[in-house]
Amino acid sequence: MDAEEDGIPPPGGSRQDDQDWAVRRRQFMSQPSTVASRRLQAVCVRRACKNYGPKKNPNVILDSLNMTVPKGVIYGLLGASGCGKTTLLSCIVGRRRLNSGELWVVGGHPGSRGSGVPGPRVAYMPQELALYGEFTLQETFTFFGRINGMPQKSIEERMDFLIKLLQLPHHSSFVKNLSGGQQRRTSLAATLLHDPELLILDEPTVGVDPVVRQNIWDHLVEITRPGQKTVIITTHYIEETRQAHLIGLMRGGKLLAEESPENLLLQYNCQTLEDVFLKLAVMQNMGKRRRSSIAQEVIQQIPVPSITNPALDISDEDKCEISGEFGDNISMSSRGRDVVTPDPINMRIPEPELPPHTFLDNFKIFKMHHMRTLIWKNFLWMWRNVGIMAFIIGLPLLQIVLFCFAIGKDPKNLKLAISNNELTDPLDCPVTMGCNDSYLSCRYLKFLEDRHLQINLYSSDGEAEESVRRGKAWGAVSFPQNYSIALVERMELGRYAEESTLDTSMMSVTMDMSNDQIGFLIYRDLQYAYLDFIQDVLKACDMNPALGLVPVHFQDPIYGPRNPDFTDFAAPGVILTIIFFLSVDLKSGAMLIERNEGMLERYLVSGITGVEILFSHVATQFMIMVGQTILVLLFAFTFFGLTINGEMALVIILTILTGLCGMTFGFVVSCACDTERTATYLALGSFLPIVMLCGIIWPIEGMSPELKIAAYFLPLTNPTESLRFILQKGWSIGMFSVSLGFITVLAWIVIFLTLSILLLKFKKG
């Protein structure tokens, strides 16, 4: 079957030839279609319905739409914003599914095995630029060529041809340095690169020089001339589509007309396609019983041809099968039309050969050439963004350094207000040594200073307490008159000491407990300093120092030091939190940038699956996360000497798994959110609950029973406890408390990955 017999306009034909072809096409397409005839078309849509929102009040996007795009034509799809063009194109390339109706693209159903859609048989140029500004033209063409399975030699040949055709700069130029028009032409070149059967171009000539625009149209006409390539193009320049073989005028989810530009102008007696569109829009409103004053005025000014013929009555089903004349997609009312309907032709077309399918193919979740190309692209992007990568790697180092310097150390030089009433001059406190029982209060103050407390002497108890009220000291200590004498009598008389002696031998302490940690530390230092002071006096007087001890002997701890450091307690949670949330931010940002710039849409139309995209990001960014982990652990345990009593290998593995869990959570965030701002809110909103409930700030045992149960199901709770057991207790993976952390983080990785794939596959249709 040659081009004319197949319904394709003859190349280089005259206007009369084009008109004759349009008539033949309408006669051919107006017959009730069959599955065989639909498979002959490049695109065939029948009774397509697509809506969003609740079933009771849905937002209808496509309303029983019929559309036919023969092979070997340029099809101009025109319509205002919001009429459903983008949704229709998304369904054609397999990115969305119809709620009902049939859709055939290059002989198959999009998404079915062997259809090649999404895949290399179709190419899509979105309205967004959808290019990496950090790549050169050559790298851009190499990337898109490899994605579509082209050999390098073919990529270079096509690149040279397209650069010349579209008047692009040298292939070593960076995309970000090109003008807006050059970038649009580069995006078009990336679409044309692998020479697909079906080209879908969304506003390809916006901002393009008129000469280059004509070159583009000439090339599109040239590639469709043999009858094997088809182009669907959308544009705001309605008159520009006069160069198309067919145009479809779309409004309100329906096609108002589907015909050649010349026939539309003749049929509706108009000089411009804008006038044709206006007439059809008015008639659509008439068909829907919408007779506004504006519509009546337009009808009076513009003659509308009659489109009804009551002599002919065809069923609704036959109407749905017919595409090519005005009214097919507007209403299923009882009006008739004068339609040429030849006898149906029995067409038997052999089923397309499907690629061989084996049992092992069911377990192939990605194609190797896709994975290699995506990983190469990710590494190239990182290489071209050295500053960003340095920040990403350096930020966790800065955080662990700040943590080790700022958190967990005992506060020093805390101020105490002292009023010593046993001194003649309260501001002069002499320190005596040896077995000397005079001015023991001053001797005790010397031990307080050894604990890095700052002693400020005041002349009265009132002044000392007033300094606490004014925030100049954390506590006030008052020694009564004859304190030293009473203290000696208390030690000598023991249980025979009088009540007045006991009262006089006691110092009075008034604390500022607004800060629990500082108050507790001063309370501890006052007690420890007193024990050291009493033992020193007893030893100087040749008495057993043990007499001054509390009669409770604490053995060496089984785990941990006698005086534990809060830094060691908080370090496991801080390390895991740093790695986890940096991975969340990095991965969610990377995915959102690709989606918002149109790259993700282009990937999926090229046949790349969501699983391939996720795993390619995991493969490349996993290496970054491993580097972050090694540097954080190196600084924490080597430079700052944090406690580690267990196996370093377990620490590294658990930290890397936690980072991987953060990566998968970042994928969930990017798939669930539409904007970077929303993703930031979600990531920050999850930060505080996870940190507060995973045992970093306070032990889990201090929570309420209900909250404690919920906390154990969070991603960082059990891993933090496991890492603490490894570092502080030296436990191995054989202990259930340690293995539980590994099990928890692995379970969350699976959950987050599953959610990511489901969201990427089903969100927004």
Automatic annotation (TrEMBL):
GO terms for cellular component: membrane. The keyword ATP-binding applies. Gene3D superfamilies: P-loop containing nucleotide triphosphate hydrolases. Residues 1-20 are annotated as: Disordered. One of its GO terms (molecular function) is ATP binding. This is Putative abc transporter g family member 20. It comes from Nyssomyia neivai. Coiled coil: none annotated. InterPro entries: AAA+_ATPase, ABC2_TM, ABC2_TM_bact-type, ABC_transporter-like_ATP-bd, P-loop_NTPase. The keyword tRNA processing does not apply. The chain crosses the membrane at residues 386-408, 622-642, 648-669, 681-700, 733-760. SMART domains: AAA. It is a multi-pass membrane protein.
